[in-house]
Amino acid sequence: MPVLQRDVTREVTTVRPPEFSRAERVRVLAAAAVGSVVVGYAAVAALLALITATATYADFDTAGVLTAAAPAWLAAHHVPLRFDAGQLGVLPLLPTALLMLLVGRTAAGTADRLGLYEPLQARSVVLSISGAHAVVGGMIALLMGDEGLVRATPAVAFFGCAAVSGVAATIGVARRCGLVELVFDKLDPVAFQGLRSGFMALFALVSAGALAVAAGLAISWPRTGELFADAGPSVGVGLGVWLLCLGYLPNAIIAGLSYVAGAGFSMGLVEATPLKFTGGQVPGVPLLAAMPEGEHLLSPAVLVVAALIGAFVGWTCRKVSDRPTSRLRAVLVAAVTAGVGCLVLAATAGGRLASGAFDPVTIPAGLLALLVVLWVLVPGALVAWLAGSRVKPVVAADAEFVVPDYVEDDEAEGGEVVDEEVVFEDDELTDQLEVVDADEFEVEEGLDDDDYYDEDEYEDGTGEDEPLAEDEYDEDDYDEDGYDEPLAEYDAEDDVEEGAAEDDEDAAEDAGKPTEPEVVEEEDFDAEFDEMLGMGPEEDLDDKPRR
Questions:
Q1: What is the number of other CB atoms lying within 10 angstroms of the CB of residue 429?
Q2: What is the pTM of this model?
Q3: CB atoms within 10 A of CB 226
């Protein structure tokens, strides 16, 4: 059975990119960099203006809104802010996601406008956008100073803004400039399927965390309504609380993911895991009503969800190869992919929360990544091993092996034919071998090496299953001058004179030559030979122009 191969066919349309001068390219890149900063800053300022305008006792001031938008813009880049009461490190992820979406769209549009299509051409767009965000972030942190109400570390602001915007710009130009194909083309089919299954597992885990949050809010809906009512009767306060909950919703989903995987989360002294619960006081935010209120006998049952996700990964990898070790490698790649994804998400979802009773908000990133790897690897490996096809040796011990010419004899030792495929102890060597069809590879006792044909003995050299006819000759049967006529038609006289044909009659039969060659007269042979070369009867070979 042939090994699964990933056939990627890409239709390429040759379109000449627009020609830009150096000054025009710089102008387009500068417009993209400045535009992404200005649009992001304007979006943050508009949101703050909406909250201020709807608040009951707030005084709307344009200058004040624009000033307050500066630290909010840094928070959207996930830069920690410092107050007199402590540091705010647990920042909402929804504004960060929206900002990255905006930057990614800007980078993609810039690449389309400049006609970029190669991976190296993407660096100009990424560097220009990330550089602009880094410079603006560092300047905002410097202008806020060390004595203001809100402060930020300039170095952290510089590199934080550069990292967030750079990742977003890279994602935006990845498909347009061929970065995705560049990465995927370097993967073999097994690793590609493992990477794909790993992203599927990560998506399933995030979905499980979202379902956990939704279930918690549904169960405690009366408490959620009370918290909204306690926030204030005005529309502006209610809108502000609702926007606060919406901004921290991705953080809550990641905490739910960690809870489903078994790592749990903590907020100050409150700790919640499926196997352990420590109660305490939490902020009066309606979103936190989804947290469990105590230990429950059925809480460990949520771990079944993670095990089912791992089993699903094994099921998706069951057909990646007929060899169990290849299927296990695909599951391992999927487990590492899902673990790394959860590590990044957990590292960005928690942080410091001032210095009060609710500090810090912790989602154990390392423990979560380790548990996710185990939840995917163990059930996935079992399912992939048992649900996949199982191979068995199908040949006798004295069977001949068909191996490519580049395989050394010492490397081929210890091989066996399994399900019509040559398998060796070295996995990499086995993956390089071609599959042998059942009709082409027949095992019979007593066969010699000469009874097998390789592709060089086939009619057209393409590997067809028809061997050469017995009456055809190889290049050794042509005369030493290289003419394309068998020796039997014009050198039989020499064979008879020298007695070669009579002395080796069996060899002539094996080669396909007639056992009683017909003697050809010299004059007849010369005429026939001239006719074969395309000469007339009066033409001479020496007068024929040579190529």
A1: 18
A2: 0.69
A3: 14
Per residue of the chain (547 residues), give pLDDT as tens: 444 444 444 444 444 455 678 888 999 999 999 999 999 999 999 988 888 777 666 666 778 888 889 999 999 999 999 988 888 889 999 999 999 999 999 999 999 999 888 888 899 999 999 999 999 999 999 998 887 788 999 999 999 999 999 999 999 999 888 888 888 888 899 999 999 999 999 999 999 999 999 999 999 888 888 888 887 777 777 888 889 999 999 999 999 999 999 999 999 889 999 998 888 888 888 999 999 888 888 889 999 999 999 999 999 999 898 888 999 999 999 999 999 999 999 999 988 887 777 888 999 999 999 999 999 999 999 999 998 776 554 444 444 444 454 444 444 444 444 444 444 444 444 444 444 443 444 444 444 444 444 444 444 444 444 444 444 444 444 444 544 444 444 444 444 444 444 444 554 455 454 445 444 455 555 565 555 555 555 444 444 444 3
CA gap 384, 376 in Å, rounded? 11
Distance in angstroms (rounded) separating the CA atoms of residues 82 and 153:
9
- Token duo for residue 55: 């608040």
Q: Whole-angstrom distance between the N-terminal and C-terminal Cα of the chain?
A: 49
Domain range summary for the chain, segments of one domain joined by +:
22-184, 189-387, 393-468, 476-543
Chain CA centroid to CA 328, Å: 17
Long-range residue pairs from 466-475, CB within 8 A, at least 24 positions apart, any chain: 469/512, 470/512, 471/512, 472/512, 473/511, 473/512, 473/513
Token digits of residue 293: 């209120």
* Torsion on CA atoms 158, 163, 166, 171, rounded to nearest 10: -160
